[in-house]
Amino acid sequence: MSNSPNSLHLFEGYGVELEYMIVQRDTLQVSPITDKLIWEEVGAYVSDVEFGDVAWSNELVLHVVELKTQGPVKSLAGLHRMFQEHVQKINAILEKYNAMLLPTGAHPLMDPYTETQLWPHEHNAVYEAYNRIFDCRGHGWANLQSTHLNLPFANDEEFEKLHAAIRMVLPILPALSASSPILDGKVTGLQDTRLDVYRTNQSKIPSIAGQVIPEQVFSQVEYEEKILQKMYADVAPYDPDGTLQEEFLNSRGAIARFERNTIEIRLLDIQESPVVDMAIAQAAVAVIKALVSERWVPIAELKKWDENTLSAIFLKVISQGQSAILNDYDFIRCFGFDCSENCTIGELWRHLTKETLALDEQPEIAYALNILLSRGNLSTRILEALGNNPSEENIKRVYSRLAVCLQRGGVFLAEKPC
User: Is 244 a domain residue?
Assistant: First the structure.
């Protein structure tokens, strides 16, 4: 593990990535033109366009573009404004193609088997390898937009604390971030359909995603031995060129990137606008900080939790969201929550944000978080706007409103415009 003088210590920097679909403005049909977008800006089909603080990059499929911080930023405060400017810049370019960015973790009407086109330009060997092994024409590859949050560590001791804390927070994060209640034009009955698809899209090689919640490994040596090497060995027969023998192959809900000394949280559905993504990121970081500092229980206590127990909580949350009932009181105690019976994940999050977050100087973030905790996550608010058995026309109407929220930087409510 590198531990140079330039290594960032815990919470000294943050990296954020936001993924959006490109769709037609009038029909919401998927529009595979990310390469055209990049060409319009730089006159070349490159994988990254850098603007100083923010970069745009391609993803596996031609209808998704990623906005990301260009290197670590010192604070998450104010970051939503920077991302919002680039959302509007991209939408202005896409107007030429009658296209726009669409938020949420999954397109509600896309048919990935007929509409998927892979990125054909720079670095596409990796994408071709994935496609050859897994066939990327499915929702689990072509229709799952997320927010990634990268947190640094400087050495093994810091990795141990950070990984122990993140593993505890992962199962409850979808209660805030779920934004994918509809797939194939139907209400799925799950709050976070994207994660349900994500956890099984590589089941051909189970060691790649594991149980989404990472195993109890708390050092680089142990991580490489128990997670990375097993995964590399299992994929090798399908990957004769060794294209996928890299840390990015790991598809757990949080993955260690020892090449840059960060842990990347990958569980979060993308929201209706960057201000809501940053509200969730700040809430997650505040709770992780509290756990790392042993505010409620020692790190040794957190390390005892195995992935099977945590995964059971995670599955309940992606199904039921904030209304999921927690009856594991040892888990609740790890967050300093005094609850004797029938605690919901929503109640736990209200406790956690009250205990760990001070947002007096960030009114926009405070408002977004208040909506998340009082009116529910985006999945809940989408279903409130749609009803139980929505028509295709109604789905398009509501998701067009979500695209307006993204353009304006607003928070979606069923009863009023952003």
Answer: yes
Could you report the per-residue pLDDT of 23-48, keeping only the tens digit for each? 999 999 999 999 999 999 999 999 99
Residue 151 falls inside a structural domain: yes
Amino acid at 219: S
The CA R_g of the chain, rounded to the nearest whole Å, is 20
What's the CATH number where 124 sits?
Answer: 3.30.590.20
| pLDDT beyond 60 at 316 | yes
Tally of structural domains, the chain: 1
Provide the residue range defining the domain that includes 242: 15-408
The CA angle 216-322-349, to the nearest 5 degrees, is 70
Query: What residues have CB less than 8 Å from 187, skipping those under 6 apart?
Result: 181, 383, 386, 388, 389, 390
Q: Which helix (H) or strand (E) covers residue 163, if one does?
A: helix 156-169
Place of tokens 């911080």: 69
For 34, the token pair is 């990310």
- CB neighbours of residue 123 within 10 Å: 12
Q: Is the dihedral of CA 180, 184, 185, 190 positive or negative?
A: negative
The mean pLDDT value of the chain amounts to 95
**Gap between the Cα atoms of 152 and 257, Å rounded:** 9
pLDDT digits (tens, 9 = 90+) for 364-396: 999 999 999 999 999 999 999 998 789 999 999
**Distance between start and end Cα atoms, the chain:** 46
